[in-house]
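just leaving the lab so this will be short. what follows is a protein written twice so to speak, once as letters and once as structure tokens for the fold. can you read through it and tell me how you think this chain folds. thanks a lot i owe you, the record is right below.

___
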Amino acid sequence: MAWSGAQAQATIDYAIRKGDTLVSIAREQFEDPKRWPEIAQLNAVRERALKPGSTLQLPKRLLKATPSQARVLAVAGKVQIDGQPLRADSSVAAGQWLVSEPNSSATLQLADQSVITIGPGTRARFEVLRYFGDPDLLEVRLQVEQGRAEASSPPNRPKPFEIRTPAATAAVRGTVFRAGADAAGATTEVLSGAVQWSAPLAAVSRPKRASAVAVERDFGAAASPQGEVKPPEALLPAPRLTRSSAGEPIIAEQMVAALPVEPVAGAARYRLRVARDAQFTQLIEESLSSSVPQQWTSQQDGPVHFSLRAIAPSRVEGKDLQWVMQMAARPVAPEPARPAAPDSLTGAAIQLEWQPQDQAGGLPVKEYEVRWTSEPDMRNFTSVRTALTRHAVAIPQIRSGSQALPTSALVWQVAAVDAQGKRGPFSSPLRLQWWGAPALGGLQAQNQSIEVNWSAQPGVAYRVLLADNPGFSNPQIRESRSGNMRFDALSPGRYYTQLQAQLPNGAWGPSSAALQTQILPPPSPPPAVSDSLGTPWSTGSGSSLQRQP
């Protein structure tokens, strides 16, 4: 990795003093005094031609080093520096140990604007952090004993940038890359530029082992715990969203939000990172899983940034999928509790009940809002708000017209309203079936019989109640599936009839409105014809002769 011509010739001005020689100047200014001939070559001068007061150009890359420090941009969770809590805007010098706990990270910025993120569960320190005459000529050597570090370095840097692990070293002259170490060895992944991935010196001396490989963009490489460097391999592709978010935000209205991602072929594990910012400096969580994560539990509302990458069996980590979800789960929706038996809902009104939920991370609840409708898409609905102390509301039956077995699809939801008047998301729709009363088609009374008719639905059993009193005490009850029923041998009088349908749970549903009819007594015969003495007249056959009305 060669330096560019501009960087190789970056210089400072040096004013020649009386008694200066090229050797004395190099001894005073250079890290390696033996490189004094480069002063003569750069300035085209000879030892005897040095004139006090004149100026020489000294290559910055040869100057003595000045210690540098890293500035802490952000700390998420618990990170320590030499056993003390690490704070944002503090400084980190060479030799100081950084130790991050799980779900914790620190983002550092170097003098040349390089950025390094120390991941969760990491122990690392700068072995070398110094510059040569200019902060842009920064030499960096970060030792990662365990865990992971991700770095972004300006391109074509004149001084090396290295991340060393016990198993291998990643050295760059400007790139975006990662490096990590654990008991199984070490890995590096290159997202931009290139990395020289080399084994430790102790491993290089062993025969039949590669000592170094060049890892290009979109490739990664592993190393064994013994320092055996593996060939580069292509990074696994970034996972894909299961839905398109182009032009619309992904909104999660539940505390446990579903993650809309698809698995990656060939992945052995997945690394999920969750942060408050797009740069992932304010880390909320980082976790490893053997399968693609399906859900994530939010602790507060607002925009949340997600990053997911697939990890190959070699432990080389793939490209990142990043997306944003707007968490809008608070105040948390109550849980619908009753009714729990949708096939037994009958009557003129129904009591809807719910169970309040813990509002951890949100404001207290002031009241509830309930909405209901007969439309599955909830487009047209009726809503009502009820006080905090009440966890139930009674609503009238939704009418769907008169038919043989009227039923209404009842869809209802409930939401909480916080102390500032903000209504949270509604609960999942609870779909119930509200059974009404069947309708009688009509009654026909003739002689001593009553015939009952209705429009029967296939597969539904009905029963007809016939009583001689409006209270239906001691009724006659008969069942039928045909849509008609006949009651015979009835005594004269007034009769009342109702119809019931059998519900899916086997119970009998509500009764229809009562219809009434009357069985009349048989008519009296006309009086017989008689003479003046009252003797009835008779016909030739001997039957009485009756007077016609």
